[in-house]
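fyi for ur records
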Amino acid sequence: MIMVGSMAAALWGIGIAMKAPYAARWTMLAILLLAVMMAHVVLPTGHPLRMATGGDARLWGVIIAFGLMVWGYRSILGRLHARVAEQAAPVAQSKTFSETELDRYARHIILREVGGPGQKALRDAKVLVVGAGGLGAPALQYLAAAGVGTIGVIDDDVVENANLQRQVIHTDAQIGKPKVHSAAAAMVAQNPFVSVRPYHRRLSEDVTADLFADYDLILDGTDNFATRYLVNRVAVGQGKPLIAAALTQWEGQISIYDPARGTPCYECIFPNAPDPALVPSCAEAGVIGPLPGVIGAMMAVEAVKLITGAGDGLGGRLLIYDALYAQTRTIKIAPRDDCAICQGKGLRPDG
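which gave:
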């Protein structure tokens, strides 16, 4: 063992002296270990060389197997890191639009309410989408297509077969992959002029404030009240407008919550989470496939309007869409005087 270790150290030192790349140095060590292994197989038991190198071929077999496992793990990890870096790589943006971009966004630019300044505002905007599922999928697609310059997406789920009935940003080939990476790849493929930042993790108390600080606008497409309250609380605290939507079975709802500009916050309208039995998940109650596309596209429209200053947004109004009976109604909503979140009376400890 000592002799093999000395030989390995000598080979590594020679590699350093010759400025050989790491791959070449590891190759030399691998050749040494294989030679030792072969010596144990070929030489008879008790041979001095076998005794000097450990005496048992099984020992070197275990060492080689362990080395291959470490190499495989590092190789897979390196590929994943490279993939994330590639998808999240910032896009170099000039001060002017290229001919390709002008042609791509021409239908926006000729709109009186958007124009060139509005399209530039979209390119300069940073929007974070919480959730890459039913609502996040269409919102992300249309934000990327619209030319929003920086789009963040956070989600800890992976693509499942049951998602594909409605989460149209993902494909069958992406099953098993993180949703954020699947979505990022689709967005960049659709519009290489945008920068996508995927965060494959759950949104939690310890990261939300720092994450939100990097963005101008938050879109919440999550499916649980704990996360919705967390998103609302941090968005209110940072004065960031929040576009939040929800859906179940055949019905969806959407509004803009922006107390810094006079609207109620999410908790003003929904001060307490309902009993879970009254609000079953999509997996429990079902959902018609195109409905998330309708509401998610509405989220993207409201985001584009907020960024460009076009038209009137849904601040102070809750839009409810009933797909089963083809009805849409809008309800006026107002801040609640006793809301502990947007009236500055302190945060509720339970969120």
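The longest helix spans residues 57-88. thats all i got for now
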